[in-house]
C-alpha cells in the first residue's frame, strides 16, 4: 500500500466547517487601530505614539505595565514605557512577511497588566521599490513556423516583481525589429507580454531572430530587468497540440510523499513525425511552482518535488504547455488544492508569569498566556486545561488568551508549592497536544500563633538550690515560616493582687530557648509552691502570641534539726503511772501533737536525737505548768 501511495496520492474532496470562537472578556476598544511604517526601516524607528489611543496620561503608562504582544514567538515591535512610543524591534521585509498580499497588515495586541486590559491593533507595512523585475529564464526560446500568418500572437514568459502596487511590474518593451511588436494583456497573474507577428517569416532568409525583452516597474526611479528572446524559425507545421481538457482540478493531502504523482495532463497532435511529437513543460510558472513540482516532458505526469505544507500554501495554479516538434503549443491549467492534516501541535506563548504568591489571597492571577494552532478547521481548534485537583482555574479571555487564577485562598501550612501543568489539545485526528509546566511557590503570611507543647507545666525544684539553676524548659512551635515562625519567650507579669508579686526575683526565662532559671535559693519552709504564666510570641507583623501556666513545687530537704519546746531540758518528771504530757518536737515537722504515753524510753543513738514511743494512752494538748 505504501508503494501505491508513493506513486499517486488519493485525491479526496471534503468540506471543512470553519467557525470562530469568541472567548472571555471584551476588548478595551471595539475597533482595531492601524499604524503604518515603511518596510526596511531601521530597528528602533518610530512608528507612532500610543498614549492617546490607549487613553492614558504619560504618568499612568509605566504603572499600567504595558507590553506589545504579536502572534507567534517573534516580537517585531516594542513599546517605550517612558514615552508611549511604538518602535520597531527589527527591520521588516514586506515581501518576506506578506508576499504578494497587499495591504501587508500584521495584527498585534497591547496588553495592560494592571488592571488587565487588551487593545487590538494592526501594523501596515508600506512597500518600497526595493526589487527589480526578474525573468526566471534569462533566455526565452520560441520556435515559430515560417507558415505562421502575420497577426498571430505568441505568449512569452513574464517577469516576476516581488513589490506590490505602483512599485510592481507595470510595462514591457521589445528591442526594435522588422518582424514583431509587443502586445500587453491583463490577467489575474499580472501583465502578460505577447509577441505579435507583423511580417511573414522566411526560414531561408533568416532562420533565427534575437530580441531583447525589457520589464519595467512603476517605482521612482523605475527598476528594470531583461531577457533574451530567441526565435527559431521552423518549417511548416499546421497542427498545434490540443489538451483533452483545459482545466484539471485535484486535491492532494499535505502529507503526500515526495515523488508522488499529483496529476497527469494529456494532449494530442494530428500531425505526424516530428511535428506530431509532443513535449510538456511549465508555462508562466513561478519559482515556487518549479521548486514544488516537476513535469515529465514525455508523459505529462505532474510529480511532487518537495513536501507540501497547508499552513504555508493552500492552493497552487500550474500552467502546463504542450509543444509539438514544430513549435506549436497549447496550454492548460492544473488547479491543486492542498488538504489540511493535523500535523501541527498547538503552541502556548506565555505573556505574564508570577512564580510566588502570598497565601490567603482570593482570585490571584498567576499567568497570562495565549494559545494558537497553525492547522485549520477542527485541527486548529484548541482546548486548554489543568489538573483537576489544584486550587486554580483557567479563565478564557479574548483572542485565545487565558489567565491562570487561584479559585480559593491558599494555605502555605497545608501546601507550600504547586506544580501546574497547562495542557493545550487540538480537536484534530489524531489529537495533538502541548504541555507547559509552572511551579508556584506560596509565600507565608503570619496567620498562626505559636502553640505550646503543653497547656501547663509542673516543675519540681529542691529547696536550697544554687542561684541560676536551670529548673525546666518550656517549648512552643509556630506553623508559619521565616520570621513569622521565630518564637520569643517571656514571663507574663502577675496581676496586682497575685499572692506572689515578687515573681521577677524568683525566676527568669531565656527569650530564645524557653529555659527557666531560679534566680535565688528557694526555702520549702517559706515558700512551698508558686505559679506564673509564660508567653510565646512570633516575630511576624502583626505579632501573634499564646500563653501557658507554669507551676513550681519546692521539694523539702532535711535542713532543720528538731528541738524540744516543752518541758525545759533541765526539768524533771514526777514518778507515777501517768506521766505528764510530752511537748511537741519542733524542727523536723514529724510530730504534730502531744500525747500521753504509758512508758517513754528516751535513748539517743550516737549523734542523733531519735525517740521511740510505746503504746499511746490518751492524746492531749500541751498543758501549762502547775
Task: Give a verbal description of the structure.
The model is unreliable at 1-28 and 582-626 (pLDDT under 50). The strands form 14 sheets. This protein has a 4-stranded mixed sheet. Strand 4 and strand 5 (85-88) form a beta hairpin. The longest helix has 7 residues, at 58-64. It is rod-shaped. It folds into 6 domains: 33-126, Cadherins (Immunoglobulin-like); 139-234, Immunoglobulin-like (Sandwich), CATH 2.60.40.60; 242-339, Immunoglobulin-like (Sandwich), CATH 2.60.40; 347-424, Immunoglobulin-like, CATH 2.60.40.60; 451-555, Cadherins (Immunoglobulin-like, Sandwich); 560-626, no CATH class. It is built from 5 helices and 44 strands. It is mainly beta.
Q: TL;DR of this structure?
A:
The protein is mainly beta and about 625 residues long. It is a single-pass membrane protein.
List keywords for this structure.
626 residues; mainly beta; Immunoglobulin-like; 6 domains; 4-stranded mixed sheet; 43% strand; rod-shaped; disordered N terminus; disordered C terminus; transmembrane helix; Cadherin_N; Protocadherin/Cadherin-CA; repeat; calcium
The CATH architecture term of the largest domain is: Sandwich
**How many domains comprise the coordinates?**
6
Q: Strand arrangement, largest sheet? A: 1-7-6-3
Q: Structural class of the secondary structure composition?
A: mainly beta
Count of helical segments? 5
Main pleated sheet: 4 strands, mixed
CATH class placement of the largest domain? Mainly Beta
Segments where pLDDT lies below 50 for 5+ residues?
1-28, 582-626
GO cellular component, one term: plasma membrane
Organism: Heterocephalus glaber (Naked mole rat)
Pfam family, one: Cadherin
Keywords: Calcium, Cell adhesion, Glycoprotein, Membrane, Repeat, Signal, Transmembrane, Transmembrane helix
Amino acid at each position: 500500500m505504501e508503494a501505491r501511495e508513493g506513486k499517486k496520492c488519493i485525491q479526496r474532496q471534503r468540506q471543512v466547517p470553519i467557525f470562530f470562537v469568541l472567548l472571555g472578556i471584551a476588548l478595551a476598544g471595539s475597533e482595531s487601530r492601524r499604524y503604518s511604517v515603511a518596510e526596511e526601516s531601521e530597528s528602533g524607528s518610530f512608528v507612532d505614539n500610543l498614549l492617546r489611543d490607549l487613553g492614558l496620561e504619560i504618568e499612568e503608562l509605566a504603572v499600567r505595565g504595558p507590553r506589545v504582544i504579536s502572534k507567534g514567538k517573534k516580537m517585531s515591535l516594542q513599546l517605550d514605557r517612558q514615552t508611549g512610543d511604538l518602535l520597531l524591534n527589527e527591520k521588516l521585509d514586506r515581501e518576506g512577511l506578506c508576499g504578494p498580499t497587499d495591504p501587508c497588515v500584521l495584527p498585534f495586541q497591547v496588553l495592560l497588566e494592571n488592571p488587565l486590559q487588551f487593545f487590538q491593533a494592526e501594523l501596515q507595512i508600506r512597500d518600497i521599490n526595493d526589487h527589480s523585475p526578474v525573468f526566471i529564464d534569462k533566455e526565452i526560446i520560441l520556435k515559430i513556423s515560417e507558415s505562421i500568418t502575420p497577426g498571430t500572437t505568441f505568449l512569452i514568459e513574464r517577469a516576476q516583481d516581488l513589490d506590490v502596487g505602483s512599485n510592481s511590474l507595470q510595462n514591457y518593451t521589445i528591442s526594435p525589429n522588422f518582424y514583431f511588436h509587443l502586445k500587453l494583456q491583463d490577467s489575474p497573474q499580472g501583465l502578460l507580454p505577447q509577441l505579435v507577428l507583423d511580417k511573414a517569416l522566411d526560414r531561408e532568409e533568416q532562420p533565427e531572430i534575437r530580441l531583447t525583452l525589457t520589464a519595467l516597474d512603476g517605482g521612482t526611479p523605475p527598476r528594470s530587468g531583461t531577457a533574451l528572446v530567441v526565435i527559431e524559425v521552423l518549417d511548416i507545421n499546421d497542427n498545434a497540440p490540443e489538451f483533452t481538457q483545459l482545466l484539471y482540478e485535484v486535491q492532494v493531502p499535505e502529507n503526500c510523499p515526495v515523488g508522488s504523482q499529483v496529476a497527469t495532463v494529456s494532449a494530442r497532435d494530428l500531425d505526424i513525425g516530428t511535428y506530431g511529437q509532443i513535449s510538456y513543460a511549465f508555462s508562466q510558472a513561478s519559482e515556487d511552482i518549479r521548486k514544488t513540482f516537476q513535469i515529465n516532458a514525455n508523459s505529462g505526469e505532474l510529480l511532487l518535488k518537495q513536501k507540501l505544507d497547508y499552513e504555508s500554501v493552500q492552493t497552487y495554479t500550474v500552467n502546463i504547455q504542450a509543444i509539438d516538434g514544430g513549435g506549436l503549443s497549447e496550454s492548460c491549467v492544473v488547479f491543486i488544492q492542498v488538504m489540511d492534516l493535523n500535523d501541527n501541535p498547538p503552541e502556548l506563548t506565555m505573556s505574564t508569569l508570577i512564580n510566588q504568591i502570598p497565601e490567603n489571597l482570593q482570585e490571584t492571577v498567576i499567568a497570562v498566556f495565549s494559545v494558537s494552532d497553525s492547522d485549520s478547521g477542527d485541527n486548529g481548534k484548541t482546548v486548554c486545561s489543568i489538573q483537576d485537583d489544584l486550587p486554580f482555574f483557567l479563565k478564557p479571555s479574548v483572542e485565545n488568551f487565558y489567565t491562570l487564577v487561584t479559585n480559593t485562598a491558599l494555605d502555605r501550612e497545608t501546601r507550600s508549592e504547586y506544580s501546574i501543568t497547562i495542557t493545550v489539545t487540538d480537536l484534530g485526528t489524531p489529537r495533538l497536544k502541548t504541555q507547559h509546566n509552572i511551579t508556584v511557590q506560596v509565600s507565608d503570611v503570619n496567620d498562626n500563633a505559636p502553640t505550646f507543647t503543653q497547656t501547663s507545666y509542673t516543675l519540681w525544684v529542691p529547696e536550697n538550690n544554687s542561684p541560676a539553676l536551670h529548673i525546666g524548659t518550656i517549648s512552643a512551635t509556630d506553623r508559619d515560616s521565616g520570621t513569622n515562625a521565630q518564637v520569643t519567650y517571656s514571663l507574663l507579669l502577675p496581676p496586682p493582687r497575685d499572692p506572689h508579686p515578687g515573681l521577677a526575683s524568683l525566676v527568669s526565662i531565656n527569650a530564645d530557648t524557653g529555659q527557666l532559671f531560679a534566680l535565688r535559693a528557694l526555702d520549702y519552709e517559706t515558700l512551698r509552691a508558686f505559679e506564673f504564666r509564660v508567653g510565646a510570641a512570633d516575630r511576624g507583623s502583626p505579632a501573634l502570641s499564646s500563653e501557658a501556666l507554669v507551676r513550681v513545687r519546692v521539694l523539702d530537704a532535711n535542713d532543720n534539726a528538731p528541738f524540744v519546746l516543752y518541758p525545759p531540758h533541765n526539768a524533771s518528771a514526777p514518778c507515777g503511772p501517768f506521766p505528764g504530757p510530752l511537748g511537741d518536737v519542733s524542727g523536723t515537722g514529724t510530730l504534730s501533737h502531744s500525747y500521753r504515753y504509758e512508758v517513754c524510753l528516751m535513748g539517743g543513738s550516737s549523734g542523733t536525737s531519735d525517740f521511740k514511743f510505746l503504746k499511746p494512752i490518751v492524746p492531749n494538748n500541751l498543758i501549762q505548768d502547775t
